Amino acid sequence: MRFSEVKVNSVRKPSFSIRTVITLLLIVFHGYTTPAIANNNVYRNIHIGAIVDIESLIGKEVTTAMGLSVQKFNNNNSNNYKLRIHFKNSTGNPLQAVLAANELIEANEVQAIMTMGTWQEAALVAEVGNKAQTPVLSFASPAVMPPSRSRNWPFLLQIATNETEQIKCVADIISWFKWRKIIAIYADEAYGGDYKVLSLLTESLQQFGSEIEYILALPPLSHLIDPKEALRDELTKLREKQSRVFVVLHSSLSLATHLFSEAKDVGLTGRDTVWILTESVASLLDTINSSVISSIEGAIGIKTYYPEENKTYQDFFMQFRRIFRSNYPDEDNSEPGIHALRAYDGMTTITNALEKLQTNNITSKALFDTILSSNFSGLSGEIPFKKGVLLQNSTFTIINVVGKRYKELGYWSRELGFSKERNDKGTNIYDDMVNWPGDIRRVPKGWAMPTDAKRMRIGSPGRTSFEKFVKVTDDSKTYSGFCINLFVEMHKILEQSYPLPYEFVQYNGTYNDLIEHVINKV
Predict the structure, then answer these.
(1) pLDDT by residue (tens digit) across 491-501?
(2) Of 438, 459, 445, which is closest to residue 510 (Cα–Cα)?
(3) N or C: which end of the chain has fewer CB atoms below 10 A?
């Protein structure tokens, strides 16, 4: 930016007012005045809004990644525009996000909004965008895509993969190990939508003969006076259930931390238990305290795969880590996760669209239509859209918590199923590779005898003429003989699939009376 030269010793009255000086300083230090002047070129400022839970780890990653994308665009002097991004704090509350969207449109006059919250938040913000015809880029997607999506939210763009893929991956893991019952755990955000995820999981499990035995909906920590006691009470109830396969569908980082600690204390993370973590938790394992991670040693997690070997990612990685460490020195982990990559790609769809338009009169509708035609290789994968939805075939990395860290077992995709290498097919990646809870060397049963289980009562004649078949020793109440041994061996086989607690009951009446007791179940 060039200023007129002013000599210090000049007594001539300045040709510009104090207000003009202040305006020019604002251009220098803030860049919000339009048009801006730099390098003898006149630029038009394009204002973009971003609704983020700024204090959360994801929020910190997202703001850093978006800033890098904006910086790259603004440093290109061949562009006719400069991006100005306005961050609003949603505090993780969808209603607060709605207020933020209104403020961005009315006060900041943004031409697009990016929202990083849940699908419920995205849908509410999209309603605001509809009224102003402002594009809304969402990084969340519903478990089941509503048929009326395009009609209800014509200005909504989803730069996130459909949650259906992740649920199918969970169901395939459960089917692979032949677990019959599971317990679903999720954070109840009080805005609905979780029932669709549960419905999809139920349907996927039924295809393999499995089912959800119990659903544990946990309230947000902010709603709990004593989180430790409340979680302990809820987890204690799970001991009354048969299943020991716990699937964490959705959870905040803070809730997951409390959940794992209390689960260990009540004995739900030991031998023959299974924990399956979806991406909302698995993608944050790097940031969880090592002592908490060790409490769920043996857990299996699902993370979205993204290539890390190419130069584009390596350059981004180095820049991100340097800036993140500088801005957030108290954070232990400074490596970008999938949320940061999607945020960078989301902002890149906007910058690419601006480079294509290069006109003096960009409307929100023109920006939206140009973003729809996006087709490029981003940090998180390929970025093409169809009817406002990202067409990206999901590949998940399957991880296994070991000690205070985790290791990668292999991959899963709908097309190839499980594989050890990304393009293999049908590989048994789990043979002798999984470190299970309790350090067992076999697949966990995934069930246990409930604390309130009712035992089967097996009637046995107390006095018989053929002791080789059935014999009862009165003083020690021991049962032996061919029939008893046959029952015990059959029970061992059946118990591999599900628990059958039982007890022998001595009966000294007639055989006819014994049969009557069996019929009447007494």
Answers:
(1) 888 776 666 77
(2) 459
(3) C
